[in-house]
Design brief:
Number of strands of chain B: 10
Structural class of chain B: alpha/beta
Helix content of chain A: over 70%
Strand order of the largest sheet of chain B: 6-7-8-3-9-10
Number of domains of chain A: 1
Radius of gyration of chain B: 18 Å
Helix content of chain B: 25-40%
Strand content of chain B: 15-25%
Structural class of chain A: mainly alpha
Distance between the termini of chain B: 45 Å
Number of strands of chain A: 0
CATH architecture of chain B: 3-Layer(aba) Sandwich
Oligomer: heterodimer
Order of helices and strands of chain A: HHHHHHHHHH
CATH class of chain B: Alpha Beta
Bound molecules: adenosine-5'-triphosphate, magnesium ion
CATH class of chain A: Mainly Alpha
């Protein structure tokens, strides 16, 4: 218990020290205040943002696009990945291709997405899906690989139908890895949407961040960064907590 | 059909070639003939790769032999029939996401048996293997021997007349292995099942069985059948009796090369 407590103490101390430094360094002139406004200014800006009605359409746009892309990319990627992994021929043909495409930075395709889809919702969602679907497919490959041959044999020896094998063996076996897919997908997806918004858009958090950056409104910019970081961390940690609870499922 | 519930097993001229379709196949089993009377405990031993697991899979209806016939309780085995034949595998092949009880209930739940009946039967089977108090534990909270006992309970839950076990205790340490053997003999005594037991261990085979079938290296054939005429109940001392040593030597001579 003592170790557990001291670990938490150390973590808290680091975070507090970081925030303290952030507050003090610009105030005493250690940092240029125009580049790094003190934490209290940023928090004031954050409160201002959250209190202003004109901010919410931007937040809403980004979250909506992210959610839409997520809802397309995760099931589509999972189903495609599973179909490919389950078929010997498709595995041989498509698995290396997916790995190749995964290794290419997706951002370089952004201009093409603009040419193809303009700079509206379609383009954002399409780019979000494109940024995400390959990592989901790769995780789905891993999910299929995590289904144990002996579990399938047990199910068959007790006369399970194909549907029962899918629902009672495949699905629970794959759940921990699929949760990981969900978590990684959200990171890739959110990144893709924000990037697309920063690059070319009329609305959205990414758009705001881009504008604030160019007009040197660092307190607003940092406020948005804190907000987005908070959202991402909460989502990620929720899924990770679920994953940890299922840890022993991996057997 | 009362014949189908009776626990006899008869195998005639069974052969199996893996990859027969693609021309160049491996002959794994050749001309296997044997029969097991109801309620007998029969072990199958043989060198690694001689086809013991393959044979058991076919007996359990999980794989079709290239040729030959298998009758269990007088009826041919075409596909898995868990009400007739229970199977226990080497690895503790429990589902890690289900409690011990839910694992034992699994075969029943596949057939849509009502929850109440399922629970009742599962608890009864767990009691038989001495794990009633551990019913709600997850597999990762159980020791290797306990997990294997849960698999045995799962094999027994539908009360099949025949139990097929493929090296069920191979992953356990020597001491646990023999106490599991005693446990199995007790269950066998209480339930009068026909048991077909594959093992690598000659001592284990002789200690447990009424009869030992000895297989040759690939292609697997049955090269000897040994009536184990050691008195029951058997205890640890039986293993140092001259008859035990003699039988062990006889099997060893046949599979050593
Ligand atoms: N699915 C398969 N496809 C092709 N060959 C197989 C397959 N399963 C088993 N074999 C081959 O058939 C032979 C018998 O295998 P089997 O697993 O039945 O042996 P075993 O006696 O159970 O071995 P062990 O004692 O090591 O468990 C081996 O040579 C093996 O390589
Ligand atoms: Mg084997």
């Amino acid at each position: 218990m003592l170790r557990f407590r001291s670990i938490w103490f150390a973590r808290l101390a680091i975070i507090l020290a970081f925030f303290a430094l952030w507050e003090i360094a610009p105030r005493v002139g250690l940092m240029n205040e125009r580049l790094l406004p003190p934490l209290s200014d940023v928090i004031a800006a954050l409160i201002g943002l959250l209190g202003s009605a004109s901010f919410y359409p931007h937040l809403g746009t980004t979250l909506f696009q992210t959610l839409l892309a997520f809802l397309i990319a995760v099931p589509a990627g999972a189903i495609l990945g599973i179909l490919i992994a389950e078929n010997r021929f498709a595995s041989e043909v498509f698995k290396p291709l997916v790995f190749f495409i995964f290794s290419i930075p997706k951002s370089i395709f952004l201009p093409m997405f603009i040419l193809a889809f303009g700079i509206g919702l379609t383009q954002k969602v399409a780019f979000g899906v494109f940024s995400t679907i390959f990592i989901v497919m790769m995780t789905a490959f891993a999910a299929i690989a995590s289904v144990k041959e002996e579990h399938l044999r047990v199910a068959r020896s007790y006369g399970a139908s194909t549907m029962q094998v899918v629902l009672r063996v495949y699905l629970p076996s794959m759940t921990p890895v699929l949760l990981e897919a969900v978590r990684l997908a959200m990171i890739f997806n959110f990144t893709g949407i924000l990037l697309a918004e920063m690059y070319a858009s009329r609305r959205g958090l990414g758009n705001l961040i881009g504008t604030w950056g160019m007009s040197f409104q660092l307190d607003q910019l940092l406020a948005a960064i804190i907000l987005i970081s908070g959202l991402s961390i909460v989502f990620n940690e929720t899924i990770r907590a679920l994953e940890l609870r299922l840890e022993h499922w991996r057997g | 059909m009362p014949a189908a519930t009776d626990g006899t097993v008869a195998v005639s001229s069974l052969s199996h070639t893996y990859g027969a379709e693609s021309g160049e196949g491996t002959l794994a089993l050749q001309d296997i003939d044997f029969s097991v009377a109801k309620g007998r405990f029969v072990s199958i031993v043989g060198p690694s790769g001689c086809g013991k697991s393959s044979l058991l899979m076919m007996l359990a209806g999980l794989r079709h032999p290239t040729s030959g016939e298998i009758l269990c309780g007088g009826a041919p085995v075409k596909k898995p029939d868990p009400e007739r034949i229970g199977v226990v595998f080497q690895e503790a092949s429990l589902f890690p996401w289900l409690s011990a009880r839910k694992n034992v209930e699994f075969p029943l739940s596949l057939r849509g048996v009502p929850q109440k009946v399922r629970t009742e039967k599962a608890l009864h089977a767990l009691e038989l293997v001495g794990l009633k108090d551990f019913a709600e534990r997850l597999p990762h909270e159980l020791s290797g021997g306990m997990k294997q006992r849960v698999s045995i309970a799962r094999g027994l839950v539908q009360d099949p007349q025949i139990l097929m076990m493929d090296e069920p205790f191979a992953a356990l340490d020597e001491q646990t292995r023999f106490s599991m053997g005693d446990e199995l003999l007790r269950i066998w005594d209480e339930t009068h099942k026909t048991i077909l037991f594959v093992t690598h261990s000659l001592s284990e085979a002789l200690y447990l069985s009424d009869e030992v079938l000895v297989m040759s290296a690939r292609p697997g054939r049955i090269i000897d059948r040994i009536e184990v005429d050691l008195p029951r109940p058997r205890t640890f001392e039986v293993m140092s009796s001259p008859r035990f040593v003699e039988l062990r030597e006889r099997i060893w001579q046949q599979i050593r090369h």
